[in-house]
């Protein structure tokens, strides 16, 4: 039986990104996907700087960036048109080395992910192949799937299986995970249109219409694409409301049938769920398989990308035999313990925003919706730390920025999949580093501003660019360095840049 390091079930953005990352670390990867081609219509329309940084690692950031749209922010307005809550987004390059937010067309992203996979050694992609059986046999997992193009059942094995197989995940059933329910389950009509000609009065902001009778969302997508999401009321028929005549009636406040074509109309139930168990033995979940969010923060695909960024290097260390035995189990356990609280925080905030949209912006709902309830009608993007796992002290588990090196390059371009020490120059002098660990100092980069944001004189960064901790003394820094695990991709010599 053919054996791979990792089998990924599901070839959406999370599965494809994970396959790229694992292959970059030298692992053999099988991707099984039931459909013959990527879904041709948009679903996710927004991602943030943290996600763009992951796209940078796999070499697609420069390809997707020209296809994205600028994103000034989101506004919540009342039925009377009053601004209830403003959520502006910083413009220009931010701490992650990229803009804070991007609007995109999901089929563009999937095309790029798949085109580049063709040139990625180590990845086998099997489309029209439906997995129907996985069995953790202790040392490996057996997977059975049907190749639907040939009507043939095949058996393969993998050291680990990751279910990136969406809300109805097969792998989640094998894990037998229940779901934590955050109480939001609503039907919304999603309408994607392509304008015939520009209509600047629609604006570039996302707008949440907090209209009690029919809450709705408008999102400006790249080019001539625009999206509306409109509440379906209890008792309304999903098929009836998705008919073109009815859709145009619902859109009539914004545009008419002579101004655009309908690209897609579909009724979705937006859920707020987190899987109780993200792992059982060698079976793991990522993306919608382990969390589903209402869309009001545009964070659905982002969460899946964060999952795979947290997971890939841990799987690489295990598959390469660099972490074994009880340490391997403990390392794999940190995937759920770190990721779940972060995913939960985004979902709970999205549910609160949904509450604001649905209750027409009453004072109480406005206060409840604000992540930091300071009374102002302005909110900022949240950046919840990951939960407890690897790391030392209160500065562990923060997403660190991406310093620009003196030659203008971004840090991760130089230290791909490496651990990196970032330190004030005087703390860095004479440091003895394990092989392959990078060193970035305040002398040769703009690390000072990133360290100031963390509130430490030095830090150690994991391959996913979360902090292992902060240090202000040589002793504290030495303790962090002692906790570094081997690199997923070994570098011959540590570099000081
Ligand atoms: O731009 C954002 O931050 C959010 C975008 C978005 C996308 C889809 C649906 C929504 O309610 C919001």
Automatic annotation (TrEMBL):
GO molecular function, one term: FAD binding
NCBIfam families: PRK06183.1-3
Domain FAD-binding: 3-349
Keyword Oxidoreductase: yes
Any matching Pfam family: FAD_binding_3
Family annotation (Gene3D superfamilies): 3.30.70.2450, FAD/NAD(P)-binding domain
Keywords attached to this entry: Oxidoreductase
Protein name: Bifunctional 3-(3-hydroxy-phenyl)propionate/3-hydroxycinnamic acid hydroxylase
InterPro entries, alphabetized: FAD-bd (IPR002938), FAD/NAD-bd_sf (IPR036188), PheA/TfdB_FAD_monoxygenase (IPR050631)
Gene Ontology biological process terms from the UniProt entry: 3-(3-hydroxy)phenylpropionate catabolic process
